[in-house]
Structure formats: C-alpha cells, structure tokens
C-alpha cells in the first residue's frame, strides 16, 4: 500500500517582536566578531547610531510624501549622498575599507563617485535653518562626541544590512522596537555600573511620574536625563491627553526639555525619545550647572521637574562659582537640588520629584542650609523612603524621593516608608523592585492618614538655629515612630568603652589566627590533579514547554553565581539543559580565565545551565567543597584557568581535559577543617566591619596564597 506523502509544514510566521529581536541579536552577534569592540559599552552605542540614521531616513521619507501631497517643496534634513538610502540601503553597496573611509574621513570618495566630507564630518557640520534648526542641531550634537570603533568594514556592512530590515515608518515596529531598546538600555546600564552612573529603575520612574501627574500644556524638565527614562515615561503619560492636532503639536514642541553632559547617554537618550514618539528631543548637551543660579529667570522656569541627579560627584571650581558662597558644596546632588528649586515656576505653578541619597537627609553645614531653604521657601510635602538595594547593581546606597512644590512654605512634612520586599531584607539585581509594590503608597497618596508606614512632622521642628538665627541643623532623617526600635540609654563613655573592648576582642582573634598559620610553616601538602576530585556532571534533562526553570548567571572575578531569571521551557533556546545541584562547582568555558566560576548554593539547587557551563561534583573525601571555594578565590587559581584556556582571539575556551590534568597543593582533611575555621573567622570580621576591610582582604589573600603554593608563612 502506497504511503500518502506528508504535506510540508508551512514555515511559522514570526511576530513583529520576534523578527525585530532576531535582527538585534544577529547584529550584536556580528559585532562580537569585531576586534575594535570590547563589550556592550562599545557595541550598543554603535548599534544605536546605526539605528538612529535609519530612523531619520524613514522619517524623511514620510515627510517628503506629505510635502508632495500638499504640493510643497521639501528640503531634506540630510542631503544626498549622505542619506541612508544613498549608502546603506543597497545590500551589495559600499563595504570594507571604502565604507570605513566614507564614515570617518574628513575628505573621501563618496558612494556617488564624487569627493567631499565623510559622513560623520558632514553630520557634525549640520546647521539648522528655515524652521529645521531643532532636528539638524540634534543630529550635529549627537555625532560631535562619537567615533566609529569597528575595525572591519565588512562586518559593519553586515550589521547595516540587518538594520535596513527595520521599518521605522511602521508604527507597530517603532512601538515594538521602543520596548526592545529599553532592554538594550538596561544592559547598557549594567555594563556602565562601574563607571559611577546610577540609573533609575523603571518602577521608581513610573511612580514619580504618576504622583506628580504632569498635564498637557505644562513644561517638563530633567536636567540630568541620562538615557531619558523620566522624559519617555512623562511623554507616554501626556500622550494619552493629546487627542487633537493642536494638542499633539503642544506635546511635540512645547512640553519636554532635558540636559545630559556625557556624550554616550546623550546619544542613547536621543534614540530612546525618538523611538517613543518625541520627534525632535530638546536635550541640552552641556552641564546643567554651568549657569549662574542668580541669572536664571522666569523664561527658564518650568512646571515640572523629574530627575535623579548624580550622587557624590565633585564639580570644578568654575561650576561652584555659579552658586552663593555659603551654598557651595562638593556634593553634586545638593548643587542640583538648588538648581531645581531655582528652575521651578513660582506661585504654586511648579512642582518636583527628586531622587536623593540618604546622606542628604541628615547632612549638616551647607547641606542643612540648603534643606532649610527647601522647607522655608517651598512646600516639601512628602518624602518617600526606599529600601536598600532598589538601585542594584549600580549602588547599594539607600535613597529617598523628595516631592515639593512652589506653594510653600512647608507646614507638615509627610513621610512614607516603603516596606521590605516580601520574604527578603533587600532588593537585588536578580530580584528587583516591581511597580506593584507602590500600590499601597498610591492608595494612600490622595487620602492621607497616619499608619504603620506613614507619619507627619511639623516643618518648624526640623530646623535648628543658633542665637544669631543661623541654621545649624536641618534633619530630614526622621525615623518611623510606629516601629519599635532599641533605644540605647548608655552614657557616651560607656559606649566608647564597649567599642574599645570590641576592638581588643577583634585583635585577640586576629592574633590567634595569625599564630595558627605561623605554626603551619612546615605542614605537608600533596599535589592532587583536579580530575581526582572534580567529577563532570553530565545529566541532561528534556524541558517541558509549560514548566518554569531557574537559570544561572556566572559572574566574573570570583563574584560567584547568581540567579539570572526564571523562564518557561518554551522560552529556552536549547531543548536539553544540565540541571545542577547545591555544592557542585560550576564554571564558564569562555570566561573561566576571567574568574567566572563558583559553588552552587542552596537557593540555586535544581537550576539549569547550557553546555557552555560545565558542572562538577566535588569528592569530599579528598577536598571539602567549602575549602575548594576558598582556593578558587586566589589569583593563582584564575591563572591556572587561564593556562588551561586556548584558542584564537575571539574563540578562547577552557579545555576541560587540560584543566582536569592540572594539580594543586591540598592539605589533609583535618587541616582543611582547621583552615576553614580560621578563614571563616576572618570573613565574619570582614562582614561585621570590625576591622579594616582592605587589611582583612590582604590577610585572607596572603593566607590563601600560602596554601596554594604549598608553603604556609606567618600571616
């Protein structure tokens, strides 16, 4: 009997989100091959300016069509041969060294065969006229601080061809890409965390916008806008109110203003705002503090300020001279607070929501005088106190939200304390704050009464003056009176004696540890191959599409493992994954040479990893897992992983066989236990802050170095 031929399944149609996500991922994958790009801090800005130019060309096409229908002449913002359609749209067009030359040269051969300025040189020289000043100046400013970092013009052509597949003239695609771009920005923020830039989590931004409630016709400013989070959220808030042609004109032309002094966030904010629908963002590329405070007049004042100004920075003397002599401070947040107060419209027509570090609330001296100004000249009506970890992974600094307006002076100041996240003491990168956690505060906002989370204080009680009337103290760090806390009734001398006793105890414990390690100079160590006690864990599981699975991320430089997230089986690319167990040793093949490994802790038990992350059971008859964890924290172990890694520049991988053949010195199990007891003492002291963090870290590393090298010396 003849078999009936199976009908070939129709290829599954991708959604807009899936197609765009695929384009972005493919572009980033290509960029990883380029030797000139090092990490997301390089790749994402490159991707942004390429998308920026494609966006502009698509917008130009729309405006050209409208002008043609209206029978009007149209002068393009970007002229031939510099438009995207002239050099980028042809997949077989200019590439390799010719493409790089066209981008970066001051004078070069252009795609149309003529000679003239390179693309970047042309864009930087744009000057607006005939009503086009806004957009032309935006473009010129964006490219002032930008340089191409890709070394391969062929790889760049591949990226350009992919981005050409994005249709910015489709509202659905722009809307979808706006959401994807927010994801890119979060990754960018994670990459920039070590640069001292702390970005505001979206739930906090949304809460501040909702309670401030900007209205169409009001002017909104963020003087330190970063990647534009507050402005995009405020734009979406006002967009719902723009239901006529005139209202849409007001929304686009008269509503939003920002400032961002750093070139990279400036570039990112431009595309972020464009993708969210603001056609010509008005972002000042200079330092918002560069103007003399006394010279800021009514025409520079706005209705609403939403911002998270920089914390802890230090401004140059020229900037400080713009402030009153008795209000000059090195704390950037306090300078911005003065600027914000100056730039609000008077007589109740101005209001602000500002993120400040916790130290601002209780600081004395100049800080006290600035806060007294805030209470006496403005209506500081609410302080929302956020829990630790809200700004992870950028900083663990506790923060507060100040809400004030120009209907002042302040009478009563309300405090609202956000509760701890359920089941945890603080937020983290893998378990961040959610907007829903503000629901109780939102319900309370317009119908206020004191409860276990809310209380009010008379503004007059917050300011302390000397006999001359000068402000000596202004404390806004008012503890929750509904929380029963321990009240220390000891005299100052008793507290000091207690501190001294504690320090003596710490020193005694340190001397005890030092004596122990000093007595281990001649201990016997045997060199043991890693393969003797590390056994590869290979059990793979098949994923159920509807089931949820924990996934692990492996952090660099000995920072261990963490939860990356929880996904359904259908969302995980590889059908088979390895399930790991608590106590196993896990490492990254690609980044083991950069310290990417760690022990699986209890909360990660049962999590999944791909084949790029080998997991090993540890034979505790030879090495105690906790002792091995300490050993992996040494530079010597990282160097061992480095020596066991091979490959070309972009394909360096850990070679497992080579790694497992390497030997390390291992003491007896009893000695391991003794070591652990002392090392954990040092770790406890470090956590408690009972001694110098730097000195304790140095001591721990000295001990570990001694063990790893088979020789114990005095600590």
UniProtKB/TrEMBL annotation:
<dbReference type="InterPro" id="IPR003356">
    <property type="entry name" value="DNA_methylase_A-5"/>
</dbReference>
<comment type="similarity">
    <text>Belongs to the N(4)/N(6)-methyltransferase family.</text>
</comment>
<keyword id="KW-0949">S-adenosyl-L-methionine</keyword>
<protein>
    <recommendedName>
        <fullName>site-specific DNA-methyltransferase (adenine-specific)</fullName>
        <ecNumber>2.1.1.72</ecNumber>
    </recommendedName>
</protein>
<dbReference type="InterPro" id="IPR002052">
    <property type="entry name" value="DNA_methylase_N6_adenine_CS"/>
</dbReference>
<dbReference type="InterPro" id="IPR044946">
    <property type="entry name" value="Restrct_endonuc_typeI_TRD_sf"/>
</dbReference>
<dbReference type="Pfam" id="PF02384">
    <property type="entry name" value="N6_Mtase"/>
</dbReference>
<dbReference type="GO" id="GO:0032259">
    <property type="term" value="P:methylation"/>
</dbReference>
<dbReference type="InterPro" id="IPR051537">
    <property type="entry name" value="DNA_Adenine_Mtase"/>
</dbReference>
<feature type="domain" description="DNA methylase adenine-specific">
    <location>
        <begin position="174"/>
        <end position="470"/>
    </location>
</feature>
<dbReference type="InterPro" id="IPR029063">
    <property type="entry name" value="SAM-dependent_MTases_sf"/>
</dbReference>
<keyword id="KW-0238">DNA-binding</keyword>
<keyword id="KW-0489">Methyltransferase</keyword>
<dbReference type="InterPro" id="IPR038333">
    <property type="entry name" value="T1MK-like_N_sf"/>
</dbReference>
<keyword id="KW-0680">Restriction system</keyword>
<dbReference type="GO" id="GO:0008168">
    <property type="term" value="F:methyltransferase activity"/>
</dbReference>
<keyword id="KW-0808">Transferase</keyword>
């Amino acid at each position: 009997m003849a078999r009936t031929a199976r009908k070939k399944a129709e290829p599954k149609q991708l959604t807009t989100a899936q197609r765009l996500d695929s384009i972005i991922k493919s572009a980033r994958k290509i960029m990883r091959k380029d030797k000139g790009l090092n990490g997301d801090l390089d790749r994402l800005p490159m991707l942004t300016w390429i998308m920026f130019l494609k966006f502009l060309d698509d917008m130009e096409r729309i405006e050209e069509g409208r002008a043609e229908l209206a029978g009007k002449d149209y002068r393009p913002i970007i002229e031939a041969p510099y438009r995207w359609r002239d050099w980028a749209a042809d997949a077989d067009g200019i590439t390799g060294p010719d493409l790089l030359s066209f981008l970066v040269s001051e004078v070069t051969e252009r795609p149309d065969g003529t000679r003239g300025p390179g693309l970047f040189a042309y864009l930087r020289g744009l000057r607006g006229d005939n009503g086009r000043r806004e957009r032309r100046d935006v473009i010129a400013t964006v490219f002032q601080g930008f340089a191409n970092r890709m070394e391969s013009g062929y790889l760049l052509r591949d990226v350009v061809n992919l981005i050409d597949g994005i249709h910015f003239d489709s509202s659905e695609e722009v809307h979808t890409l706006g959401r994807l771009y927010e994801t890119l920005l979060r990754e960018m923020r994670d990459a920039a965390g070590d640069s001292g830039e702390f970005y505001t989590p979206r739930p906090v931004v949304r809460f501040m916008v909702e309670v401030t409630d900007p209205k169409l016709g009001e002017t909104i400013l963020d003087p330190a806008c970063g990647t534009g989070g507050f402005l995009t959220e405020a734009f979406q808030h006002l967009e719902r109110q723009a239901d006529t042609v005139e209202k849409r004109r007001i929304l686009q032309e008269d509503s939003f203003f920002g400032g961002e002094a750093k070139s990279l966030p400036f570039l990112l904010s431009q595309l972020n705002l464009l993708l969210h629908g603001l056609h010509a963002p008005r972002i000042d590329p200079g330092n918002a503090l560069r103007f003399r405070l006394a010279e800021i007049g009514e025409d520079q004042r706005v209705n609403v300020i939403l911002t998270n100004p920089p914390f802890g920075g230090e401004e140059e003397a020229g900037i400080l001279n713009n402030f009153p002599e008795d209000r000059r401070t090195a704390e950037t947040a306090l300078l911005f607070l003065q600027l914000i107060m100056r730039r609000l419209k008077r007589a109740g027509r101005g209001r602000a929501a500002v993120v400040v570090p916790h130290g601002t609330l209780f600081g004395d001296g100049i800080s006290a005088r600035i806060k007294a100004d805030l209470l006496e000249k403005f209506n500081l009506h609410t302080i929302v106190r956020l829990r630790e970890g809200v700004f992870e992974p950028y900083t663990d600094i506790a923060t507060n939200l100040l809400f004030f307006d120009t209907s002042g002076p302040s009478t009563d100041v309300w405090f609202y304390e956000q509760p701890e996240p359920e089941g945890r003491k603080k937020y983290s990168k893998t378990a961040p704050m959610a907007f829903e956690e503000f629901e109780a505060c939102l319900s309370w906002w317009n119908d206020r009464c004191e409860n276990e989370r809310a209380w009010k204080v008379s503004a007059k009680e917050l300011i302390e003056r000397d006999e001359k009337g000068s402000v000596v103290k202004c404390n806004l760090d008012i503890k929750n009176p509904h929380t029963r806390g321990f009240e220390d009734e000891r005299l100052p001398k008793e507290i000091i004696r207690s501190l001294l006793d504690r320090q003596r105890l710490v020193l005694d414990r340190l001397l005890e540890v030092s004596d122990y390690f000093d007595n281990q100079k001649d201990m016997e160590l045997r060199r043991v191959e890693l393969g003797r006690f590390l056994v590869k864990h290979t059990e793979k599981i098949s994923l159920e599409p509807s089931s949820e699975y924990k996934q692990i991320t492996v952090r660099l430089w000995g920072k261990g493992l963490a939860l990356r997230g929880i996904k359904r089986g259908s969302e995980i690319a590889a059908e088979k994954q390895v399930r790991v167990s608590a106590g196993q040793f896990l490492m990254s093949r690609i980044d083991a040479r950069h310290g990417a490994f760690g022990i699986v802790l209890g909360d990660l038990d049962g999590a999944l990893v791909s084949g790029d992350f080998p997991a090993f059971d540890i034979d505790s008859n030879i090495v105690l897992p906790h002792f091995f964890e300490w050993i992996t924290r040494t530079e010597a172990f990282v160097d061992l992983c480095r020596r066991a890694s091979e490959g070309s520049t972009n394909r360096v991988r850990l070679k497992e066989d080579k790694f497992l053949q390497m030997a390390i010195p291992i003491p007896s199990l009893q000695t391991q236990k003794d070591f652990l007891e002392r090392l954990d003492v040092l770790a406890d002291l470090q956590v408690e802050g009972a001694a110098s963090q730097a000195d304790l870290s140095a001591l721990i590393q000295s001990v570990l170095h001694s063990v790893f090298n088979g020789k114990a010396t005095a600590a």
